């Protein structure tokens, strides 16, 4: 009977140890479930952030492409405007040259006019002298 009592005592101890281990296992399972749930939440958040990063990368690529297209368009327009400015400068040069030629002709004509006026004054003076001479002869 002692053996039975000893075995019963061991059985009780083993049962208590089993209960303690079962409780520890249950606690560990609960902690594992909590950690798994937290990890899944973090994974969901990581997935959301990765999707957001993907969207932002796509937006940046689109903005960059639009910026490059705008830059190319502006460069083309600047080239066209530069050509127009160069053509305008050539035209201005030509007009400036013609203007100088016209100014030169105007100066020459003014000189001729001045000479003609002097000749007219001289002729008038000579005519007046001739008239005076005629009057004195009469």
UniProtKB/TrEMBL annotation:
The keyword Coiled coil appears for this protein: yes
Stretch list, region Disordered: 117-138
Coiled coil regions in record: 11-38
Domain of life (superkingdom): Eukaryota
Keywords: Coiled coil
Keyword Coiled coil: yes
Name of the protein in question: Uncharacterized protein
């Amino acid at each position: 009977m002692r053996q039975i009592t000893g075995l019963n005592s061991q059985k009780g101890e083993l049962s208590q140890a089993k209960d303690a281990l079962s409780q520890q296992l249950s606690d560990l399972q609960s902690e594992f479930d909590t950690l798994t749930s937290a990890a899944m939440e973090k994974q969901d958040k990581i997935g959301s952030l990765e999707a957001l990063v993907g969207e932002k990368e796509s937006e940046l690529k689109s903005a960059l492409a639009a910026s490059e297209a705008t830059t190319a368009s502006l460069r083309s327009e600047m080239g066209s405007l530069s050509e127009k400015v160069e053509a305008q400068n050539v035209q201005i040069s030509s007009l400036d040259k013609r203007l100088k030629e016209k100014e030169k002709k105007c100066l020459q004509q003014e000189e001729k006019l001045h000479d003609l006026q002097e000749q007219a004054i001289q002729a008038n003076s000579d005519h007046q002298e001739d008239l005076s001479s005629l009057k004195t002869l009469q």
